[in-house]
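We were asked to recover a plausible sequence for a given structure. The inputs and outputs are reproduced exactly as logged, with field labels preserved.

PROBLEM: sequence recovery
POSITIONS: 124
GIVEN STRUCTURE:
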């Protein structure tokens, strides 16, 4: 599939991370939609079905784990490829995230090349 036709939803409450990830993906040819937390992302998903979701874990209002659980319960969104982003790499958090069946787990600080590589791999 052509990257220019694929839309990535980037969910992160940190403006700097959100901008860096969005810029890296746009430069690689993807369309990017952003959200500031899980609640915002869920509302955005009502209007379209992203091709992949990159989501922070620690966010206000609805964290990434809660957002992922809601997606898994949603018939049309449960199969959207999902990758967690997190500044925390503690074993308990990684295990909790892995139980929600993501395609990946990227630790912060993010490396633009790793983000693009992970997205390409997940969309193949």
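RECOVERED SEQUENCE:
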């Amino acid at each position: 599939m052509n990257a220019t036709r694929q839309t990535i939803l980037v969910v992160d409450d940190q403006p700097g991370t959100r901008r860096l990830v969005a810029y890296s993906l746009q430069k690689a040819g993807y369309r990017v939609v952003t959200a500031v937390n899980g609640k915002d992302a869920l509302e955005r998903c009502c209007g379209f079905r992203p091709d992949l979701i990159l989501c922070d874990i620690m966010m206000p209002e609805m964290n990434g784990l809660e957002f992922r659980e809601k997606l898994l319960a949603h018939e049309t969104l449960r199969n959207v490829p999902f990758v967690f982003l997190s500044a925390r790499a503690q074993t308990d958090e990684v295990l909790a995230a892995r139980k929600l069946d993501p395609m990946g787990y990227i630790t912060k600080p993010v490396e633009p090349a790793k983000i693009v590589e992970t997205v390409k791999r997940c969309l193949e």
